Structure prediction request, 137 residues.
Amino acid sequence: MKLGGQLYGSLCDVGTLFAIATLGFYILEWTKQVLNNEEQRAFSSFIWPLLISALLFNDGQLLGKNTVAIKDYINNVNTYVLTRTAGGVDLRAAYSKAIGVAAVRAVIGREIEACRTSSLKSARNSRVFGAGEANII
Prediction:
């Protein structure tokens, strides 16, 4: 799989602009630290702008390859974990069973709600008729 297209190229261009701006700030900060005899720390902070520049070089081809490689690695790990943990389990049967249980629970919930609303109606009716009979007598 290869990443490409206008959107990817535009994102790489924006990333390159950010990397150039970061390198500009780095050069200013590095010059300031060299003048203050602190250049050892300045070299360690150069790693990130250098890494970003390397990843975005050549329209981000290295970034695209690394992204796809990491995605493939994660997919392989997920597949390995699923095959180890779900060994002997039929996922389709388990899914069908779960859907069936969910459907049964939904039907039971509707019936319970229907019972509650009918009992509330009957309770209201008994109060209304009971109060009306008391006023008649």
